[in-house]
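User: Run a structure prediction on this.
Assistant: Running it now.
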Amino acid sequence: MIPQPAPVIPSSHQEAPPRDPAFPGRNMWSPDIRHDPYVVQEQMKIVEQMERECRIFKKNCALAGTARQSLIDDAE
């Protein structure tokens, strides 16, 4: 069997489609997820849950503080 060359993809199909602002999820075509609003929002939810656990159960307080500082550093 002789191998066949891969089909040529038209340039109009090689570009990532534009992001729909109404879509509530992460921009999966973005090469940098650290500043993606959806990802930051989800990370903030996790940090807030960790801080709540620290206040109520006195657990993982150092981790919660480090996570909060990491989000602040990434925002700069």
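The chain is about 55% helix and 0% strand.
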